[in-house]
User: What shape does this take?
Amino acid sequence: MDGIIYVVGIGPGDKEHMTFKAYQILNKMDIIIGYGTYIQLIEDIIKDKKIIKSGMTKEIERAKQAVELAQEGKKVAVISSGDPGVYGMAGIVLEMARDMVPVEIIPGVTAATAAAATLGAPLMHDFAVISLSDLLTPWIKIMTRLEAAALGDMVIVLYNPKSKGRPKNIEAAREIILWHRAPETPVGLVKNAKRGNEEVVITTLKDMLNHEIDMLTTVVIGNSETKIENDMLITPRGYHQKKNYSKAQEVLE
Assistant: This one.
């Protein structure tokens, strides 16, 4: 059989949040390639497979290895946590594979939607997902994106908000968003979203830095209409305003 690469999103961590398709694909593979921490999350369902794991910043090496193995006729799965097309391995694998071997992307539940489900319904309207990691993206570009999202009154989800190497990025991000958003804007902090040992805090833009935030935290910052009800974040979709919009449209016409 010809070789193929599947880039598989394994979801946020808990196996019950992995898609059935991802589970099926992993069971059919000859070889599983991935970052060591992500391999550990699914170790019990791939223990009969050949496993190749590596550390952080080895994405190019993993992609190259997958292509080489697929060219040898192997069925290879390259895994990403969450969704492989959201800050995951899908892009680099497609770049490396070009037209040499077939590649199929298997989507997964990403941290933004996993955290949102825990918090309630904060993503009911337009939202932006922005990583605060400046390892691959210039910080000036990240700041521009933060301001654009804040100016557009979008709900903002922050990935990779804080690490030992860049402890101040989250502080700068908060200041930029405060230029366009009220201090009392609701904020949700979810550590280890859907990974078995979740920690959840609902706070405000003003007070968010008083709580622990790290690389495993997903930060969800509401828009001007986001509210807290029964300890849940809700961003109204606008259903109750539909009739009002229709009347306004009639006047304009």
Remarks:
- The chain has a mean pLDDT of 93.
